[in-house]
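lol ok so funny story. i was supposed to be doing the assay writeup but got distracted and ended up predicting the structure for this chain instead. priorities right. anyway since i did it might as well share w the group, maybe its usefull for someone
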Amino acid sequence: MTQTQLGDSINIANANIKNRLFKSAMSEQLGDKLHNPTSGLANLYETWSAGECGLLVTGNVMISRTALGEPKNVVLDEKSDLNSFKAWAASSKKHGSSVWMQLNHPGKQIPKFLSKEPVAPSAIALGSGLEASFAKPRALEEHEIESIIQAFAHSARLAKETGFDGVQIHGAHGYLVSQFLSPRHNQRDDKWGGSLENRMRFVTEVYHAIRREVGEDYPIGIKLNSADYSKGGFSHEEAMQVVQQLSVLGLDLIEISGGTYESPSMVGYKVSDSTKQREAYFLEFAESIRDKIDTTLVVTGGFRSASAMQDALANNSCDMIGIARPLAVDANAPSKLINNPDYKINMPRPTTGIKAVDKMVMLDISWFEYQLERMAKGKAPKPNLSAWSTVAQTLGRLGSAAFKQRRA
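and the output, tada:
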């Protein structure tokens, strides 16, 4: 039996994806003042399409302009300029890639300078030192929950209308869907909380509402935590049950990630040495669930070499390989990975050497955002961009706002 190769195509919901490389979502921060996509976003995604990535998933597009996770988020709702979304979708597909829109609601992960009273399943504040930058949320009323579910569906319909090939529900990393799933953050005593069946009701209702709007043949995926990696949070065992239930319901793709911004495992926080040897942070979970579902499975986080990616496919651990930050420094990485079995991505690790400064400007985010901004302007990424240059640019651009934490 022939082993699956990185360059092999794959069918998802009757749509053909040209290879097994999956651009996972990154926050681009390239929305305009009205939260429409800028022309730079179209340029950026055209560049990634030219680099031969099979499936491009957008950075999180918010379903409500009253619930922004970051200042320059793109929002897709009834007030949006749909022509700008059509241009974004068309550019993304110019070189044969497929493009899906990631849909998100941040819940309580909204910095204080954007919202003094965010909403969440329960009125429980973020911990791990994030309390100073993120306000304690108000618990959602049931009619508000229903309204948010419909907002997801409405944005999905508009994504389809504007030319995106599918949508992905952001159900990971501590955002609203993830908050509902977590027994730590969801302590409701109604039908939306308590048992796992109740806690997963929100995500299943979001899926059903989207499916009603977009039809049976339109691809719907989800990004889901394999675990929250925090005390009292969403566990591996619960994640396995949710994955199986979503597969039965008919989701077309499940991307496995993990962690929250209280415990950021998705960026390698406290990763074991054995995991580092295999590169992918969440491959073991994928292997545990692989024979229990028929849904297309993607693993994102940690992959750096063509050999490790190929091994994951050959062992049937997953169906596609998710990569994100490597594409911020080399848009042609997919082509290199497909054509050179010995290719390995060398990732910069920007730091000023002073932890307080790095944290102040969120260097592990802002450095990569500047790379995306360069690509959006038609410039090549600058892997040797100094950390101090990033600090200077951030302070010069944002002034005192640079000291306000934008993300958990």
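The radius of gyration is 20 Å. The longest helix spans residues 142-161.
back to the writeup now i swear
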